[in-house]
Amino acid sequence: MSEARKYRLSLTIAHQYLKQLDDATADAVFGNVGSIIAFQVGTDDAEVLAEQLSKHPGQLHSQDLTNLPRYTAYSRLLIDGMPGNPFSMQTLSPPPITEDRFAIVTERSRRQHAQPFEKIQSEIANQWRA
What we know:
3-stranded antiparallel sheet, 5 strands, 130 residues, two-stranded antiparallel ribbon, alpha+beta, 5 helices
């Protein structure tokens, strides 16, 4: 990751919790990342992220991250090559799901991924015979 910066590579790395990263990867991410956005997290992750988001020790507390309301996040951006102060931000809530959209997505998924039940049964039977 440190080598990728000079090529202006942009990556979006998203996880539900930090333990999904091994220690070496987490160190590489936090050592090289320019901007961090964190929505509400659990207590284990909040301690690490509060430290990473803060420009100065104690600037952000773990409770700040565990008590965030929906669609709210804390962010630290890289500005002119320097980390800025953390700030909270409000994101847009997702648009309401309508039945029309549900039907469109369902039909598209069926066309792209589904097969007739008889065909699948036949393929499974053929694999067991082989």
